[in-house]
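We were asked to recover a plausible sequence for a given structure. The inputs and outputs are reproduced exactly as logged, with field labels preserved.

PROBLEM: sequence recovery
POSITIONS: 322
GIVEN STRUCTURE:
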């Protein structure tokens, strides 16, 4: 039994904010941002929400897969920026698309969220628990950015990406998977939640924003990601040369170049969306995959290595056959 991706979709907010736009409201420049990260612009929400972008990405993925909402029996959203504590974003998506037969829940594995969702769906599908899964990565990161911290806010954007994964007899789908966490280093990329709010304690009303030690995160990414990819490719019985594309989390062009170098893989095999999207945490991998799919880059039988990495710290890789 193979857990195969049979459709993809994505949704970006209508408003585009360029590096030059940011330079009008803070002390930064297109030169600083693009030379260090490869990011030129990002989409930020005005009216859109994490759930509304997710539902639109889901509709496009269902359309691409040629399935109806009633056929979906599992919805998992990887997100750290859902609109509500409860209901979950997945339950909101279920309601908005009319997937009345699905069980729906969110998971938080930060930038590895979509990859964790893929692995969970794969496990359910392999055991015949469910047949058709809608998995998403979706974020409204702009609401948890400190717009006075130029070292962090220029890196991130908003958006959602989706994939339909179906259990298919005789197909391969996910060939191998690796995932891991290192909670001890969680402080290098963190965002506080709500503070204690009971009558027994003095509470601080400070708002919670993402804070990051960029250089530590960079070191983590360029070490953990090639190692995880190498391990997954080997577990799939393949070599780096067998991989047609590496669809990785879109944090920074220099991280992608460094991973390519460490794997001795051609940079051309690492498609990018970060130039026009920035880093959208859990949404990065499915948005990139959808762009590749819609450009006709993905042909049946191709081997694609996917990897997400970030807050937690968390990381996850998969090798899939398209
Ligand atoms: N515009 C202009 N200058 C900025 C700036 C901005 N947006 N942000 C920071 N700077 C300044 C700093 O204040 C510092 O100035 P100083 O030397 O006068 O003190 C200088 O630029 C260098 O800052 P530094 O943080 O050392 O830059 P860096 O070369 O490490 O690059 C990152 C910063 C964030 C681009 C880099 O560390 C990185 O890519 N890290 C990985 C982050 C990431 O991908 N996170 C998500 C993973 S999921």
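RECOVERED SEQUENCE:
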């Amino acid at each position: 039994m193979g857990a195969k991706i049979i459709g993809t979709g994505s949704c970006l907010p209508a408003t585009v904010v360029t590096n030059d736009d940011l330079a009008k409201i803070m002390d930064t420049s297109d030169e600083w941002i693009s030379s260090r990260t490869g990011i030129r612009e990002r989409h930020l929400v005005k009216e859109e929400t994490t759930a509304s972008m997710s539902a639109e990405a889901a509709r496009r993925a269902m359309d691409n897969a040629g399935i109806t909402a009633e056929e979906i029996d599992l919805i998992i959203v990887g997100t750290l920026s859902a609109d509500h504590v409860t209901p979950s974003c997945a339950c909101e998506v279920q309601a908005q698309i009319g997937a009345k037969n699905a069980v729906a829940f969110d998971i938080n594995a930060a930038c590895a969220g979509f990859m964790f969702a893929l692995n969970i769906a794969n496990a359910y599908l392999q055991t015949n628990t469910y047949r058709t899964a809608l998995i998403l990565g979706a974020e409204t990161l702009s609401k948890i950015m400190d717009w006075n911290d130029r070292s962090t806010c220029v890196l991130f954007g908003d958006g959602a990406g989706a994939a339909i994964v179906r259990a298919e007899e005789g197909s391969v789908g996910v060939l191998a998977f690796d995932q891991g966490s290192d909670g001890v280093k969680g402080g290098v990329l963190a965002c506080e939640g709500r503070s204690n709010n009971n009558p027994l304690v003095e509470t601080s009303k400070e708002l919670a924003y993402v804070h990051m030690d960029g250089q530590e995160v960079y070191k983590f990414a360029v070490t953990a990601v090639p190692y995880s990819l190498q391990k997954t490719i080997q577990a799939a019985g393949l070599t780096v040369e067998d991989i047609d594309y590496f669809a990785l989390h879109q944090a920074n062009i220099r991280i992608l170049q460094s991973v390519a170098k460490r794997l001795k893989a051609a940079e051309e095999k690492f498609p990018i969306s970060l130039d026009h999207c920035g880093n959208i945490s859990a949404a990065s991998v499915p948005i990139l995959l959808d762009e590749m799919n819609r450009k006709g880059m993905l042909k049946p039988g191709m081997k694609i290595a996917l990897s997400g990495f970030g807050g937690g710290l968390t990381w996850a890789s998969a090798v899939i056959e398209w």
